[in-house]
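Chain A, query sequence.
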Amino acid sequence: IDSQYRKTEIEVAMKTLLTVLLPATAGNTIHGMKLPVYVFTVLAVISTVRSCIHLLAPDGGAGSIAGMDLTVAGSNNIVFAFALWGSAQLIYALIQLAVAFRYRSLVPFMYTLLILETLLRMLVGHMKPVIFAHTPPGAIGNHVILPVATLMLVLSLWRQQVNYSSLTIGLNPE
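Chain A, predicted structure.
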């Protein structure tokens, strides 16, 4: 009986988490704490600036910011790849801005994507290492973004519900 109850509890928790991460309708209502939305808005603006640098800078930021040697043969390909990366980042940043200002109920989902993207970038850095003249800002940023995004995800999922009969505070599944 206890095992069946625990299984049902886990199923309800997973269903609730999935409903919060991917609501049936996206709206501008903030269900959790407001701080994660404000932090997400700042991150969206930073993402927009970063993407524009990669897209519009003459070297895509590869040499001037990341410290890559662009005197090697094929360096135009590196600049091209950075510009392509910037265009993809700009699309992602525009989605982030839309969520920050119009679809705030999707902020927990966007933090999940940000965490996955950061982990994948770190994995690619280990699998396919590149030589830089110095540590690029993005590599440092990964180590900042990961814990911040994880904390903000938890806070964005947190629902405070006061039960006046027992004066407890807990997670509200809705």
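The chain has a mean pLDDT of 88. The helical segments are 2-21, 35-56, 75-101, 107-127, 137-157.
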